[in-house]
Amino acid sequence: MPFDPYAPPPMLTAELTGIGGRIKQLPEDFDVEEIPAYEPCGSGDYLYLWIEKRALGAEYFVRQLARKLDIPVGEVGTAGLKDRHAVTRQMVSVPLRVEGLLDRVNGDGMTLLKTGRHDNKLKPGHLRGNRFRILVRDPVPAAADRLPALLERLKTHGLPNYYGPQRFGHDGETLRIGLAMLSSPASRSRKRPESTAGSPALPSGGLRPPLAMPRSPFMRKLALSAAQSALFNQYLARRLTDGLLRQVLAGDVMSKRPFGGMFVAVDLPTEQQRFEAGETVHAGPIFGRKTFRAAAVAAEREAAILQEAGLTLASFEGFGKLVQGTRRHNLVFAEDLAASAEPDGIRLSFTLPAGSYATVLLQEIMKSQLADADAGD
Fold first, then answer.
1. Which terminus of the chain is less hemmed in, N or C, by CB atoms within 10 Å?
2. Contacts with 63 (C-beta within 8 Å, 6 or more apart), sequence order
3. Are 256 and 279 in contact (CB under 8 A)?
């Protein structure tokens, strides 16, 4: 398959017909509960607030909470971003000094459920995962017959851990900027250009206007992360289409499940047994300066992805901490995946680890267009 960062990645259940339907017709249709990495210890200079929000975007929610408590936005800590078109429960940290103002939190789509004290500010990534309860309205009449095979395939084989399309910006614009940055030596220098031509890594599809390079560190990191994510998706898509999603390759970087250290696969029979027993999972590349290196066949496959994108490992130099690189599990397992009938449709419930996308799983089951869909975190 050619390198095409805009193409929808292939699905694990491609030959199984989906149940159709629609999501997010009401906020209550998309219920998400954060699984914190830890509970507040009971003492410290920060208050941890367990808040339910309804129909509030992540950034707007933080701004409104800061306004209510009369603190700068930067003093509000969150572990992950939660979708606007949903009812969500998540942990938020604020300075202890606002303890007397907590009665202001309730209202305007927010409900304070409980509080606790802790000794550090909550930071992005301080969560284990998210529990989802999602109502699929108007499924096809044959949905009940189609569901068992779909659920069984995903529970036993695992979900390809793709990044969702929302990662790449409207019409892929954020991705386009990120790939252009990686392809342009000038974008690595301190003196950044106002604009540059589109990245040679992108497929040709007619002339495109020049891109304005982001100047803020946040937007630069966002664009570069989109490019890294697209490269990972392409790597994982290639692995799936080659029938290697459940096979350990020589030189694969393996990771212990659910959390643990990484190592390179050498003894393939042993590592295949550990993989099939659910002890480990192979991890794909988030390319960057510090990405844990694969070896042998696995390294050759990863290098081929970069080559087809018109990039090399040197493309990631010069961006400081923006593209350090890491590894991402190629498969995630929603062992609690279940479905139940309701008067208005079918309710899907499942848990995903932090950073995985509910919409990727929903696409496998529904085979429908998912507009304005939620990102995992």
1. N
2. 73
3. yes
* Predicted TM-score (pTM) above 0.85: yes
One fold for both 38-124 and 165-329? yes
The pLDDT tens digits of the residues spanning 152-182 come to 999 999 999 999 988 898 888 999 999 999 9
Cα(370)–Cα(354) distance, integer angstroms? 21
Question: Cα separation of 113 and 50, whole Å?
Answer: 6
Q: Which two tokens stand for residue 324?
A: 């350090």
Q: Does 83 participate in catalysis according to the annotation?
A: yes
92 — pLDDT class (breaks 50, 70, 90): very high
Show Cβ contacts of residue 229 under 8 Å, excluding neighbours closer than 6 positions: 163, 167, 168, 175, 286
Candidate CATH numbers 3.40.50.790, 3.30.2350.20, 3.75.10.10, 3.30.43.10; the one for domain 165-329: 3.30.2350.20
Q: Which of 29, 31, 83, 374 is catalytic?
A: 83
- Please tell me whether the peptide bond between 258 and the residue prior to it is cis, using omega within 30 degrees of 0: yes
